[in-house]
Design a protein that fits this description.
The protein is α+β, with helices and mostly antiparallel strands. It is built from 21 helices and 16 strands. The protein folds into two domains: 213 residues, 3-Layer(aba) Sandwich (D-Maltodextrin-Binding Protein, domain 2), CATH 3.40.190.10; 228 residues, D-Maltodextrin-Binding Protein, domain 2. The N terminus is likely disordered.
Length: 558
């Protein structure tokens, strides 16, 4: 089964902070001096100059700001955004994530050969799986021989410490203001990506930008109908009843079915949070005091709602284990195979691959985007992403040579090519005749496993254009549900007031707080502890570092 470009782990999953953790999505970066403000207001941001939309691809117009581009067809023609290879013929070393099986070596890999030719470099990556990525990054940094380009989770302590220690180049002078226009695809990146990923007013990497809403829920409409529901629920109580009734089906289309797979923080829990008006992890109360989501009445309602779903048998029997980041691939596989009614994932993958895969694996299956209904007395409120998901840093040693720095920024510019360009067509779909064929203007995968592996293993360096969603003929009917959900969630997205702040407390206490929150959540939802125990949970959270974290962030807010 095909997977999205990076759906296996949530942002926090890579940080290994567990469920319901108070993480860098709320706190920006970690490891910098906690007494220092982010100073992002003083940052001379790179000039934003949008690249053209894909030609003839049926761009969906939306009046809602911060929506990703949605296309209902394939480009009629592709244009070149990097007319001259940026490289000088020598090696370019990288440290990057390997989301799939390892690609074949250069000599047996046409994709690698073309990448070398397009860039005019000897592309030499170190490919590391997500589950061991940060441990191996620590080893590389400790060894002192740092690759030219590295994708780093700048919220992780080891990466933040490396930035402080000067391991990565300060790119501010090379990219601020109109200087970024030398790299048109980097100039295409939105200002919020640069601002939110900056460190105390300086740029230390190319942001991997995210839209305001990166993920959304789906529902099996055939299971809805089998349970007696002809339309999506209009309230939280109706959704609870519908999922409970789906759970009673037990089997459908010859397969064991459950309403929900895992009790994951960024699966059903995220949707239930939105329904109860709980967007950002931190909010400012009257008087300017920071309040954690954990301390709100809305979160107590979320925990109670999830407990009711548990009591109704809506979850898979292994829901607690399936809710972990490590078992996320298993949940996706079971969903694709037709066993779950509910799924929550990245919109581009859902709309172009995932939903179709479910329908192809199970006769009679049908999947639609779920419109989250509000809880009684609450207003729907989604959580705005921090706007970026890690950075691509450049070795400080390599950047000492201005020509070398220009070369490496040019490589990043190539990888950030937008939809509708020849570069993105290659990085996204591969080589015509090897990875795909053209049916008119539509790109059709040749479904050669080795060719797919050779592409997927190399294309993810980290820089990318702002997110887009492309619907081919097979998926064009999903447009209305996709647009309705995305516009609703984007309009209601709440931005965390602590985004852009830095905290050593978070680096020191985040993993412990995350595990504490996951343990308490699992106990209360599964009925091993009463809902009233949330009071004890909050007290333990404060003592375990939550109160210290609040004070640190509060001090920086002023």
């Amino acid at each position: 089964m095909d997977l999205p470009s990076r759906p296996l782990l949530s942002r926090r999953g890579l940080l290994a902070l567990g469920a319901m953790t108070l993480t860098a999505a709320a706190c920006g970066t970690e490891g910098s001096p906690s007494s220092a403000p982010s100073a992002t207001a003083a940052l001379p941001l790179p000039t934003h100059k949008p690249q053209p939309a894909a030609k003839g691809a049926g761009l969906v117009e939306s009046a809602v700001p911060d929506m990703p581009q949605i296309y209902t067809g394939s480009p009629a023609e592709y244009w070149t955004s990097v007319p001259k290879p940026p490289g000088r013929g020598g090696p370019v070393t990288t440290f990057q994530m390997l989301w799939f099986a390892p690609p074949a070596a250069t000599g047996a890999n046409p994709v690698w050969k073309k990448l070398n030719a397009d860039l005019n470099v000897q592309y030499t990556p170190t490919l590391v799986s997500p589950d061991s990525y940060n441990d191996k990054l620590a080893t590389v940094l400790a060894g002192g021989k740092i690759p030219d380009l590295l994708f780093v989770q700048d919220q992780v302590a080891v990466a933040a410490q490396a930035i402080e220690a000067g391991a990565f180049a300060d790119l501010t002078e090379a990219l601020a203001g109109d200087k970024v226009l030398k790299y048109p695809n980097l100039a295409n990146l939105p200002a919020y990506g640069w601002k939110n990923s900056s460190k105390n007013g300086r740029i230390f990497g190319i942001p991997h930008v995210d839209p305001a809403i990166a993920n959304g829920p789906t529902i099996r409409t055939d299971l809805m109908r089998a349970a007696g529901y002809s339309a999506q629920p209009g309230s939280a109580e109706e959704l609870l009843a519908m999922l409970s009734d789906i759970a009673k089906l037990k089997r459908h289309h010859g397969k064991d079915v459950w309403a929900i797979g895992g009790l994951g923080t960024y699966q059903i829990q995220e949707t239930v949070r939105w329904m109860h008006g709980l967007g950002a992890d931190w909010r400012l109360a009257d008087g300017g005091k920071l309040v954690s989501f954990l301390e709100t009445d809305e979160f107590a309602e979320v925990a109670g709602y999830l407990a009711k779903l548990w009591q109704a048998g809506a979850f898979h029997p292994d829901a607690l284990a399936l809710g972990s980041d490590k078992q996320r691939p298993k949940v996706k596989q079971l969903w694709v195979e037709g066993h779950f009614a509910f799924e929550f994932d990245a919109h581009p993958w859902l709309a172009s691959q995932g939903m179709t895969q479910v329908e192809e694996h199970t006769d009679g299956a049908a999947v639609d985007f779920l419109i989250p209904p509000p809880a009684a007395g609450r207003t729907l409120k989604a959580r705005h992403t921090p706007g970026y998901w890690g950075i691509v840093a450049i070795s400080a040693e390599a950047a000492k040579d201005p020509a070398r720095l220009e070369e490496l920024l040019g490589v990043c510019d190539y990888f950030a090519a937008p939809y509708g360009t020849k570069e993105e067509l290659f990085l996204g779909r591969g080589i015509e005749g090897y990875n795909y064929r053209l049916d008119g203007h539509e790109v059709v995968d040749l479904e050669d496993d080795q060719a797919t592996t050779n592409l997927q293993g190399l294309r993810w360096l980290g820089p990318r254009a702002p997110q887009y969603i492309s619907l081919d003929r097979k998926n064009s009917h999903r447009k209305d549900g996709l647009v309705e959900q995305l516009e609703l969630l984007t309009k209601t997205a709440e931005t965390d007031p602590t985004v852009g702040l830095v905290s050593k407390v978070q680096s020191r206490s985040g993993a412990r707080l995350g595990q504490l929150n996951e343990d308490w959540r699992n106990k209360i939802v599964s009925g091993r502890s009463p809902l009233t125990a949330i009071k004890d949970w909050r007290e333990e959270w404060k003592k375990a570092g939550g109160e210290e974290l609040r004070q640190d962030l509060q001090k920086q807010l002023g």
